[in-house]
Amino acid sequence: MAYSVHFTSVSVGEILANLLELYVKLVGLILVGFFLGRKLPATVPPRLGQLLFWVGVPISIVAFLRKADLSAQIWIAPAIAYIAILLGAFLAWLAIKGQAYLTNTTLQHPTQGSLILAAMVGNTGYIGFPVTLAMVGQDYFAWALFYDLLGSLFGSYGLGVALASRFGDGATNYWQMAQAILINPALWSFGFGLLFRQISISNMAEFYLEKLGWGAVALSLILIGMRLSQLNSWHRLPQAGVSLVIKMLLLPLLLGGTLSLFGVTGSAAQVIVLQMAMPPAFATMVLAETFNLDRELAVTSLALGIMLLLLTLPVWLWLF
To answer: pTM for the whole thing?
Structure first.
């Protein structure tokens, strides 16, 4: 499987055709996963997730890093990620305070925690990577990679853990959370991939390495479908809507227009906007389970966010 969508000197019709092709592949693979998730044993998705975590995602990072352009100031990407994460948390806090002021009711702490997490941390890996590769190409993949591994990852298991422990009542084991970051194979493969770029390999080896990378991307989308097939909660639509408006609309709109101030323009800016506009991360569900936050809200935000992405993606491509 490979995406090959380019926007240089093409008509609007061709852009729409390419976007439709992307949707067919994204939705098709997620639907395959949804169907398999209903039919296969419940142990399959966790095992597939472990396989991708330890093998698939690291291989794809090494594969796509070989063709990524690292000459630009891509260190700005994680800095922008932190700004987006902090702004998302702040806007969610304002929304919670505004709701309490207008309705004279206060959301329970676990619900507040899930709402804030869903508004600040995006799925910049499993969904962000394939979307970026499809719409912008491998040359700018490093921007998405830096945004995810040096931004979203630490936002999820750093600030995210601190907030989850503040609003939840689960036991806090910071050493285990630190280990989750330190032993993350994606980080190690990132370092290895930077070194491996300097090593020449045969064209055939390059070809198969790239195919393995795309295979991992396809399996990631199938895994998303499998997990969605297990989600049955739609009771928190209003709160989920607040999180998604902040995460998928306000953040890319507010920060996207300021990227030129950081010297980020063109395709690099498009990558950053796409990463900021991703739906909530699966890490929000993990943290909700770990710290006894509002699981229903976390689940609803995940499912609704993936569906909303199909509507917002053309908007961001048009604006930026």
So the answer is: 0.84
